[in-house]
Amino acid sequence: MTIAITKDAGVVAPQKESRSKDKTSPPPKRRPSSDRRIRETTPPSNDPQKSHATEGLRALYEAVGEAERHYRSFLDFLKFVENRDEIADDATFSRILHHALTEFPISQSALSQRLGYANSQIGRWMTGRAAPHVLVRPQVIEVLAAMLEEALEDLRSNNRSIVQAFDIKDGFSRKGETH
Fold first, then answer.
1. Which domain holds residue 94?
2. Where are the alpha helices (DSSP H) in 42-136?
3. On the chain, which terminus has fewer CB atoms closer than 10 Å, C or N?
4. CA dihedral sign of residues 171, 174, 176, 178
5. pTM value?
6. Is residue 72 in a domain?
7. How far apart are the C-alpha atoms of 69 and 75, rounded to whole Å?
8. Is residue 47 a part of any domain in this protein?
């Protein structure tokens, strides 16, 4: 069956293709009804909409996993430097704070409220124009780590249904194993 399309992009009703009247060609083979039923209930694997949706779901699944790894690695870094000499350096502390506030969903005002400092003071720490006392820095890192853990949990809970849908749909687990 063909569909004719006119110049003005109007679609004309389907037209039957003309079969040749050649008597030498065998009649088309009919499939058993059970085979037809299976074929009708099983979607074709080369369906562009299904593959596009699956690719989008896979990309989202991978993006969520990548974001979780990024959160987790920075959180591990924060826990590592919490009581170390790395945060004694003003420039290093400023870079850590700047990275945390620009790369993750942690706001400067939320951090200032948790720490009990003015929002402008956090901004000066972030830009390196000022620095907290060396004894206050571990507390700042500890609060940043707690806020990052909360952000990580929010990321997981907001995307849990997406990840579960992908796990069920394609049979993949977080570790890449098949079910």
1. 52-170
2. 48-81, 90-103, 108-115, 119-127
3. N
4. negative
5. 0.60
6. yes
7. 10
8. no
